[in-house]
Specification:
There is one protein chain. The chain is an alpha+beta fold. Helix content is 47%, strand content 15%. Strands 1-2-3 form a 3-stranded antiparallel beta sheet. A hairpin with a 3-residue loop joins strand 2 and strand 3.
């Protein structure tokens, strides 16, 4: 399988198997944004099989893939939580060092 970004006149205009979209993109997309995947299979006696980007996105969502924007948002949240954990662990270590130092002082005084 490969992405077909330019219409191949020998094969004909791409029409999606899922939704039937043709080679004209819907608003607000432009032709630069529209693409189809050629499944490299023939249907109906030689017609090529294509899936448009919208159907590919639906398939990806149904199978559990996450889009890039959601992934980046999750990564940013995770980075913030990791920093918060690090800061809390550093504060706990600092308190433990102070407590250990106080115990040493109390042990020498006694």
């Amino acid at each position: 399988m490969h992405r077909l970004s330019i219409m191949n006149p020998a094969v004909g205009p791409p029409r999606c198997l899922g939704c039937g979209r043709g080679n004209t993109p819907d608003d607000p997309d432009t032709m630069a944004d529209f693409w189809v995947i050629d499944l490299e299979r023939d249907v109906n006696w030689g017609d090529p099989a294509y899936l448009c980007k919208y159907c590919c996105e639906k398939i990806a969502e149904e199978t559990g893939f996450v889009d890039v924007a959601a992934w980046e948002e999750c990564q940013a949240i995770m980075a913030g939580l990791r920093k918060e954990i690090h800061d809390l662990e550093a504060a706990a270590d600092s308190r433990q060092r102070r407590l250990d130092a106080l115990e040493v002082v109390r042990a020498t005084e006694a």
